[in-house]
Design brief:
3 copies of one chain form a homotrimer. Chain A is of the alpha/beta class. The first copy, chain A, has 3 domains: 95 residues, 3-Layer(aba) Sandwich (Udp-n-acetylmuramoylalanyl-d-glutamate--2,6- Diaminopimelate Ligase, Chain: A, domain 1), CATH 3.40.1390.10; 144 residues, 3 Solenoid (UDP N-Acetylglucosamine Acyltransferase, domain 1); 36 residues. Chain A has 6 helices and 40 strands. In chain A, the strands form 6 sheets. The first copy, chain A, has an 11-stranded parallel β-sheet, with no helix packed on it. A 10-stranded parallel β-sheet of chain A has the order 9-12-15-18-21-26-29-32-35-38, with no helix packed on it. Chains A and C meet through helix 4, strand 40, helix 5 and helix 6 of A and strand 22, strand 23, strand 38, strand 39 and helix 5 of C.
Chain lengths: 351, 351, 351
């Protein structure tokens, strides 16, 4: 199961210094790595730890390589992005240690005769695939997944157990969808007539690009008339809710419990901290970063970091400050009165 | 698949002006509608768009009808609630284009011999229905749903794939439950003894009225002793959590990610913005509207709109204001001292 | 189905006064209990209700027993923790009224030949259990659950329908996992290279102790390299998200919709109100209590109650106070200027 450092560099690139014939069996963090491990230095502050590491090999950046103490006796792989290199090396180890599964359809799966399943795909037990759906080459659809009519999975996409991927939804290549995710449920659209809600049919779909990851129990609603769009490279953590007709720009990442209301358009390369929320029909520019726990109530047209949450305190201190928050308007009134009175007194005195 | 405007008005009502024999194939928004579409004007600000629309037919209110420019050459359907009319018309088109499914039970479903399934119901693949459960006329239970012992589904209710509807729960007629929803999990009830939590069995059920929609991955817990109640016409979006023994009043609507803690009683015709939270054992009156991201910490006895979230700002600005929030009590102290000192100085001067 | 009070005391302890041969069929709250019920007094404020209760038996603490009015004619069970006693008595009634299920594997389940299922376990319809998994004595795995390769369930653990328990995850004895929970999905780990996210394989597992309850649609991610740890006696409500490599200390309880970001370490005996959020890599001491809706942005080293949410108000009042929050820095500046000007004027006057 081991791999020689020279082989690794042949596959992933980087400049190797030292003994390339050493075999490593896996990756470990600086503090834990032993003589059969590869490790990595992605933070210059940890140079001292790197120097004393027992690892067989160290992935590091040129600037660190120039500085690292000679006491590190293992091999070095120099690359401009050590953390990305680590990720790719870890993928390589994971792929080599994965138990291979044979292509084919488990006999307990219910596949409509008009669905098109690539012969290289793996369809697990109790999967249901409805009419006209398409499952591409090398896909893996795990136990208990549901794929609705005319849904499409691009090549090499992996659905973990018990994903619901409803009719007419599309996902591109190399997607990863975690257990319990629901893609293509009806958007929340109603007309109100005298207090009673009348459902507006949701006849759009969900279109998801390539290299998109969708977390466990995350939900992405289908569009009302047009589609909900998730562009290439988007990464969604668990328990996220994306409303109907949203567009999430390429390479945007959202941490757990984020919510995006309907028809919001979010730019590319954005990040959202956990439990951040975006109201409907807003526009968020590219390269916007929203802090955890913050509610976005207006469109954001400039890149940057935005925040809005009440700071945590001991409960007794919070109670005191929160009680005053309500009285801020009167506090400001008093301030203005003071200013005026002081001004007037000053004039009296100076006269 | 088309429908004549005159037929539409026969079914849905409204006053038709113009050529009723024109056939329309679907509904489109004002900006996109072409000569085979019906469109609607629900916002008077868009009158100019309506006038220039190419749609075959326009749904609009009497006040707009009186004002609309003669340049709109299509037919008009005048009705007091154009948006609700649009919703009903869209339902009609959706029903006509739906692929009909035959009643019956998929051979892979596991149905207890004592369950009662109406012969007009459609039971999908790998559905499990336990002892004594009742599935009413015209119900559709999609792939992989679980219906526990003695649970009851009223007529025409639709469960999307992979709903969990546990023992003894009831839902009325025309309900729609989205994928991944869990109705009837145990409420979160424990007694604490010396730091250790002792589970309190949750022996109540969940009773859901007619015309209730429940979103994807939403959870509604069963009651501890009595039932959790969801009244008629309630609409719940995705990822909502309703605790045990709550009562949600008729026609109340909640957007995604809302949480309601146990034993809260919420009135009729309320609305909750996304991620709003309600603490346990509170009472919320009818016609209360809670803004997104707001935490309800006390009962609300008066109708109205209530809000409580920290406003979003650029991170640097937020840091400055948030740092002062903690010092509000001392800020107020200083203000009071200033007032006193100024008063005293003023008296000195005036003497 | 009834039980004599004397039998109950034999099983659960406590001191019985009065007629132990009375049979009770269940537990009811003070207000509802009739002559076939047991009831309990856990709050001294309700003594008057207890006195007038028609219950056959009353569980209460010694201090209340000494005070209770002679008008209560039923039997009394005196115990130091009446609420915990109530919980255990309710468990006893629930166990007696449960419909017994026979051990065995439903014929529709797909069990890998190398999985080890204790003969006393109950495996429901359409369960999937993969290679090398272990299901202990007395476990109940309900319909549609997925148990991944080499996963382990300790004795007497109960999975409700449609749990996803992925490869290599472990749960101890007497665990209860509600429907829709996903244990062991990949953690959210990526390296960013030029704006593009590169997945870091998540090769750790999830280790869950004994007596842990996990709510409906709650998600617990597997670790990146090491495991995510949930210690004994932890109670998690619905819709909770626990990130990779977290450790949740024993007997900590979290209400619905809580989120904990990756690598947070939370102590023992903590409580988290609904929708509280914890950022990643933080340390929370034992006996820390976080209020609902509060965002924990720094480590907490001292026990106590911590809070941070914007107080709810009528929307118009909120708008006024929220508008000033942004101007707190200038408000403080003005305050300082006033102090200085007043000081200077005072000196002028006193000269």
């Amino acid at each position: 199961m081991g791999i020689r450092l020279s082989e690794l560099v042949d596959i992933l690139g980087g400049t190797l210094t030292g003994n390339g014939s050493v075999e490593v069996v896996g990756i470990a963090p600086l503090s834990d790595a032993g003589p059969t491990h590869l490790t990595f230095l992605s933070n210059p502050k940890l140079r001292a730890h790197a120097s004393s590491s027992k690892a067989a090999g160290l992935i590091l950046a040129p600037a660190d390589d120039a500085q690292i103490d000679a006491s590190f006796s293992g091999a070095r792989i120099v690359t401009s992005h050590p953390y990305a290199y680590f990720a790719r090396a870890a993928q390589l180890f994971a792929a080599r240690s994965a138990v291979p599964r044979l292509p084919g359809i488990h006999p307990s799966a219910c596949i409509d005769a008009t669905a098109s399943i690539d012969p290289s795909a793996i369809i697990g037990p109790q999967v249901v695939i409805e009419a006209g759906a398409v499952v591409g080459a090398g896909c893996q659809v795990d136990a208990g997944c549901f794929i609705g009519a005319h849904a499409v999975l691009g090549a090499q996409t992996h659905f973990y157990p018990r994903v619901s991927f409803l009719a007419d939804c599309h996902i591109g290549q190399r997607g990863i969808v975690a257990s319990g995710a629901v893609i293509g449920a009806d958007g929340f659209g109603f007309a109100n007539e005298g207090g009673v809600w009348i459902k507006i049919p949701q006849t759009g779909g969900v279109r998801i690009g390539d290299d998109v990851d969708i977390g466990a129990n995350t939900t992405i609603d289908r569009g009302a008339l047009a589609d909900t769009i998730i562009e290439d490279g988007v990464k969604l953590d668990n328990q996220i809710q994306i409303g109907h007709n949203c567009r999430i720009g390429a390479h945007t990442a959202m941490a757990g419990c984020v919510g995006v209301a309907g028809s919001a358009t979010i730019g590319k390369y954005c990040t959202f901290g956990g439990a951040a929320m975006v109201l409907g029909h807003l526009n968020i520019a590219d390269h916007v970063h929203i802090s955890s726990g913050s509610l976005v109530t207006r469109s954001i047209l400039e890149p940057g970091q935005y925040t809005g949450f009440y700071p945590l305190a001991k409960n007794a201190a919070w109670e005191k400050s929160a009680a005053i928050v309500r009285h801020l308007p009167s506090l400001r009134e008093k301030m203005r009165a003071l200013e005026k009175n002081l001004q007037s007194l000053t004039e009296d005195v100076k006269k």
